[in-house]
Predict the 3D structure of the following.
Amino acid sequence: MRRIYHRFPQSIDLDFELARPFRDVLACIARMHDTHTTVRGADGLVKERVLIQITDGRTQFLNLDALQPLSEKVSEMADFRVDLQRTLLTPEKRLPVSESVFFLRIVDKGPVTECYVAKENRLGDLDAMDLRRLLKGACE
């Protein structure tokens, strides 16, 4: 079933292809959900977390965990909401650094998958190229 968000932005920030079948890309996205990495930044350790939601009923998003297994419930096209959060880890507390939210549409094109990315707002320090790099890394 196609899972399309009726308010997906008409103006996109980035359009690219992944040389993977649609079902493989769905599996990559499912593996990325609710994961985090820790990197050393200029101010100390920074935790980077990825949260992913999928559209439901054309008007809202639901947690990706609620729709498992994903490959059996999604076909042809799907819209996602990807939340990339960065938190500074200090000995005393955790300080939110930034939050970047993207809309991601993937479309089945046979042996390749077409991806469209649009940033929800201009807040956050990441852009569509960062999401592309993250998605390509997860699929390789």
